[in-house]
Write a structure and sequence with these properties.
This protein has three domains: about 220 residues, 3-Layer(aba) Sandwich (Rossmann fold), CATH 3.40.50; about 90 residues, no CATH class; about 55 residues, no CATH class. The protein starts with a helix and ends in a 7-residue tail after the last helix. Helix 2 packs across helix 8. It contains 17 helices and six strands. It is elongated and about 90 Å long. With about 450 residues, the protein is mainly alpha-helical. Bound molecules: iron/sulfur cluster. The site of iron/sulfur cluster (SF4) has 15 residues, from helix 6.
Length: about 450
């Protein structure tokens, strides 16, 4: 028996022993990457060796994170894998559920960036990971620990991944069963069955052993296309590499100065269609550091560079929707969307607070045939809008100027000192007279 065969047998018998040792449910985190796939496959192979009664001894939860801004080809791959898994679980009558964890619509990337104007995340203001990955995972795990006395999380982390990973594994305070406590979730324990496996062990195991739910060729092809080391193994994994250093992060990620995995993929002829996404991501990064794209105050009124201007957010949403149309025309989107209907509706709610009285987000979406289920809360209904238009026409004043002036007034609504509002309104009028587009 080869050393790897020994390792495989040893992990499987350990898994079997732990599986039958208590009733606490297992949570297997699955990113679709090689390490989490290895752990999941070993767990399922172990289960298939059990008798029918033992197989149902405890529930296993497979959990995967979906930020809503995953790279489209990764999203396709993950969707495929999860559906293969679901089919296999159903046919094999296993006590396993597959769970896709998503951020709340109020905390999604687009709601925060386009809706509230958060500047694109960077190393010093990385607002995304917590909301898009950590919170959904924590909420899910907490709900499990509330229903059960305790849970065991099985992670695909390995000492061989990096020096930092080796150190963090070595620092773990493990109990007599080799489990360590999850730092954030009370009553959750962590177990890494392949922590001593090398990279070569993982690849050899996967290439010689197709998963019970399907072959690994698609995963290997993805790894071939990208470069880098770690999977974005999500917040479910308390020892995950920080996002941004990961192999396949979000396509919008501006925490890394260059999206290497996207750049590598763009070298392949068949992946060139993702270029508009990469350009858009670069624009998000560029705008973040361009103070003319941001309000001169924070939302709390403090004088400092603030959220993206509403006009910039409108421009970005328009461009995002147009890229989506381009990709749909190329047949690259399937049933996916770059931004969901719920996010657009939420963005509109946020924009209303910022003085977008005419529901521009909804109008932009409708202009590309996105039918958003949105209960209009326009400050002005169609009759009022027509009335405003007619007064403007009568007085030869562009409606857009009136909209801008109302927005400006609205932006001062919480401020005690309003002395500057007059100058700013004068500037708006002057700019209009000079044909300059106002940035609000
Ligand atoms: S990959 Fe980048 S954008 Fe996505 S959560 Fe991590 S840091 Fe944020």
């Amino acid at each position: 028996m080869s050393t790897l065969d020994n390792k495989i047998q040893s992990v499987k018998s350990r898994l079997k022993k732990e599986f039958l040792a208590d009733t606490r449910p297992w949570v297997v985190t699955f990113s679709g990457g090689k390490d989490s796939t290895t752990v999941l496959q070993l767990v399922i192979e172990m289960l298939l060796d059990l008798n029918e009664e033992q197989k149902k001894y405890k529930k296993i939860y497979i959990v995967t994170s979906d930020t809503g801004v995953e790279m489209p080809i990764i999203e396709d791959y993950t969707t495929d894998k999860l559906s293969q898994l679901q089919g296999f679980i159903k046919n094999s009558d296993l006590n396993i559920s597959v769970n896709l964890l998503k951020p709340k619509v109020t905390e999604s990337f687009w709601t925060l960036l386009l809706g509230k104007g958060y500047p694109s995340p960077n190393q010093t203001f990385r607002w995304c990971t917590d909301r898009m990955k950590i919170k959904p995972a924590t909420n899910f795990l907490k709900s499990l620990t509330e229903k059960n006395e305790s849970i065991l999380m099985l992670l695909g982390v390995r000492s061989d991944e990096s020096q930092a990973r080796a150190e963090s594994i070595a620092k773990r305070d493990e109990n007599h069963r080799g489990f360590s406590k999850h730092g954030e979730i009370p009553n959750a324990f962590v177990f890494s069955p392949v922590k001593d496996w090398t990279n070569a062990d993982v690849w050899t195991y996967l290439s010689k052993n197709p998963a019970p739910w399907g072959i690994h060729n698609d995963m290997m092809k993805l790894y071939d296309k990208g470069s880098g080391e770690a999977d974005c193994n999500i917040a479910l994994n308390p020892e995950a590499a920080s996002c941004g250093k990961t192999r396949f992060g979000c396509w919008v990620c501006t925490v890394v100065s260059k999206d290497k995995s996207m750049a590598n993929m763009l070298r392949n002829k068949e992946d060139k269609w993702m270029l508009p996404l990469n350009n858009f991501r670069n624009k998000l990064e560029e705008y973040r550091y361009d103070h003319s794209k941001r309000q001169p105050r924070r939302r709390n009124g403090q004088k400092s560079v603030g959220p993206f201007l509403l006009s910039v957010r409108k421009e970005l949403l328009k461009e995002l929707l147009s890229i989506e149309q381009e990709l749909i025309a190329l047949g690259k989107m399937g049933s996916k969307k770059l931004i969901s209907d719920e996010e657009i509706a939420q963005i509109q709610k946020e924009w209303l607070h910022d003085g977008d009285f005419f529901e521009t987000a909804i109008t932009l979406a409708q202009s590309v045939d996105r039918l958003i289920d949105y209960e209009s809360v326009k400050s002005f209904d169609e009759t009022e809008r027509t009335y405003i238009d007619s007064i403007c026409q009568e007085n030869k004043i562009p409606t857009k100027l009136i909209e801008d002036l109302m927005q400006k007034e609205h932006s001062y609504r919480h401020q005690i000192k309003r002395t500057k509002i007059f100058t700013e309104m004068e500037n708006l009028v002057e700019n209009f007279a000079n044909g300059i587009v106002n940035e609000i």
